[in-house]
Amino acid sequence: xxxxxxxxxxxxxxxxxxxxxxxxxxxxxxxxxxxxxxxxxxxxxxxxxxxxxxxxxxxxxxxxxxxxxxxxxxxxxxxxxxxxxxxxxxxxxxxxxxxxxxxxxxxxxxxxxxxxxxxxxxxxxxxxxxxxxxxxxxxxxxxxxxxxxxxxxxxxxxxxxxxxxxxxxxxxxxxxxxxxxxxxxxxxxxxxxxxxxxxxxxxxxxxxxxxxxxxxxxxxxxxxxxxxxxxxxxxxxxxxxxxxxxxxxxxxxxxxxxxxxxxxxxxxxxxxxxxxxxxxxxxxxxxxxxxxxxxxxxxxxxxxxxxxxxxxxxxxxxxxxxxxxxxxxxxxxxxxxxxxxxxxxxxxxxxxxxxxxxxxxxxxxxxxxxxxxxxxxxxxxxxxxxxxxxxxxxxxxxxxxxxxxxxxxxxxxxxxxxxxxxxxxxxxxxxxxxxxxxxxxxxxxxxxxxxxxxxxxxxxxxxxxxxxxxxxxxxxxxxxxxxxxxxxxxxxxxxxxxxxxxxxxxxxxxxxxxxxxxxxxxxxxxxxxxxxxxxxxxxxxxxxxxxxxxxxxxxxxxxxxxxxxxxxxxxxxxxxxxxxxxxxxxxxxxxxxxxxxxxxxxxxxxxxxxxxxxxxxxxxxxxxxxxxxxxxx
Length: 633
Hints:
The protein is α/β, with parallel strands linked by helices.
């Protein structure tokens, strides 16, 4: 798989290529003989020309520049973007004829402020120009990935995984990305969509026009010819770039360029820059910035970035974009984040393109990881593993339910013994109410927790090899998806409650079985099960025998259940007697619970298996989502 990174910038554009499994950084593919080319397009002899060739001085017509900045507001800009993309593709084919045959995906950058809908439209536009499988990635994210993966920068990976702020200063926008633990945070992509190096190009040109004797005449030419206006803006840009490449040289002596404009007449325009003039330009009010100066807008943008990251200030600030070479800008960023490590990309004009290629590789790994994790989490293998081992949960669950029933029975008998309940019927009703309330509560959950952990660990070990292999393919540290006992007991891995997984239908059905079994154990035989325990059983034994002879069993049991026994007789039914009586019934009650769970006719087991598999699957996907940051970063 080969991924093309296409940084279509408002001022300059660059293209890189990355082989998916390569250990080498993305390779820059020259455009028109340069690592990056001017984002300019025109026609010459009916053919699309780009970069330096798109100039009136080279015989080009219909020359367009700075069109990406207009993409959101000017419908006609879409056609220009497509035309430029077609020109880039044709140039790539001329440079390397076999290049595109092996390219499987193209990743293009966009400003941070673009929404998902706009990105999808942009991707479709570039696909219509001939680029394959286009995806659109915010440029600040691309810058972060470049710094994170670039071998030449030698940045400590641990530092990058803590917190970082990307500041991408392009020709038309200044974008920020705030990243913590390898993940972009809420409100992480923001910036000033009007603040870019191109504003300075316009201000430099405007200042030159205001000082030129031919200024008004040249303005009239610009109104008639967009090509001449683009030519002069590009020359102002070149002068600005030359100035910031060696600012010390131009502190006292001006850098100048004389332009000759030939339209209806020959006009001259001198553009000059030195340190004092540049200070004047960056502090002058600009109509493009709503009357604010470039420096004021930059300060406001940095203040917003400080506010977003106040709770966790960035350990590293990554400065990229062609305009990031400007000394005053680096100083402003350094002052805003004075405790952060300031990282300036060595080739800012190519760093976004490289980061876009990395982003394509990262996103493909994310796609595979998500897809295959979902396949495991929702697939037949997990369901089969649950079904094969579900019976191992029946006995610990029955034990836990019985223990809760024992405590409920003791509480109900105590209340009956103290006169709070009048009859055995009232005792049974109270006991059933308590059991119904407590059986789905924390006591059963806590009692089953340890057996559940052991069961879950053994179950998930059957998936371990498959998940480990997936992690190795996608670059996820395998410990992030370890499902064994260490993670489960540490609370890092999958957490599961068998009661939650049951669902209300299984729990309600099981409850009816439990209540019948416990009711028979405590109040069966008209109450004999409980009152025959201990000394009371000896006293009533003879009475019950006579009643049985005189009234018959049904009438005798009804009489006992509705009898309001004297208090001195009730106190003969001790807690110990109840425990002994219940313990004698433990095996029978637990067998009833296990039998109900295992009986295929009531569907409890099938629904419990489905609930467990679904719950485990959801949590596996949640664990995978947490592990994704190791890929994203």
